Amino acid sequence: MAIAPPACRPIEATAERGLTLAHDFAVPARLVYQAFTRPELVRRWWGASSMTTVCQADVGEGGCFVYTTRTFNGGAVRVTGTYRLVAPAERLVFTIADDLDVGSALATVTFFEHEGSTQLISTFRYSSQATRDGALASGIEGRWNDRFERLASLLTALL
User: Fold this and answer.
1) Strands 64-70 and 76-87
2) Distance between CA atoms of 91 and 83, rounded to whole angstroms?
3) How confident is the model over 3-37, as pLDDT tens digits?
4) Looking at residues 36-48, what average pLDDT do you find?
5) Residue 122 exposure: Cα atoms within 13 Å on the Cβ side
6) What residues have CB less than 8 Å from 97, skipping those under 6 apart?
7) What is the mean pLDDT of the chain?
8) What is the pTM of this model?
9) pLDDT above 90 covers what percent of the chain?
10) What is the DSSP letter of 142?
């Protein structure tokens, strides 16, 4: 069964400190959730092919994750966070920060399943409007759209 490319909607700035991304995947929520929480799967879509060199996660409330991705100029970006809420195939809430000096955020990822397809809503709440604006200026939308294209390919392989 072929999976249609994700329907990527433009990023939305919400309130004064938030960003929301929405993507649709033609697979059940449990598969999308697994791709978000299993390090061996996250490694396959988080960074470009073979670019994620470290991918560790203790998925559970209070557990942490670390992803390190090589950059094209030979550097590395480290992303870390702590899970605050884990509701399998429904919702993840976690802190997230990286080495790009964009600032940290509280992320909420919600998996809405309807008739075997999943709408994924990702909301990031930053500590200030300036931090949110810095994330927008850093190219966050393009990075997440690239990630979700790779995720769609991975989900095809999982079926």
Assistant:
1) antiparallel
2) 11
3) 444 455 666 677 778 999 999 999 999 999 999 99
4) 89
5) 22
6) 79, 80, 81, 103, 104, 105
7) 86
8) 0.87
9) 48
10) H
Amino acid at 46: W
Q: Which residue has the higher pLDDT, 33 or 49?
A: 33
Characterize the bridge pairing of strands 18-25 and 12-14: antiparallel
How buried is residue 142: exposed, middle or buried, by Cβ count under 10 Å (0-12/13-18/19+)?
Answer: exposed
Please tell me the distance from the alpha carbon of residue 127 to that of residue 139, in angstroms, as a whole number. Answer: 18
Least Cα distance to 135 among 15, 18, 45, 7 occurs for: 18
DSSP class per residue in 61-79? TT-EEEEEEE-TTS-EEEE
> Higher model confidence: residue 49 or residue 90?
90
How far is the C-alpha of 118 from the C-alpha of 3, rounded, in Å?
Answer: 12
Write the DSSP symbol of residue 158.
H
CA atoms of 7 and 47, how far apart (whole Å): 20
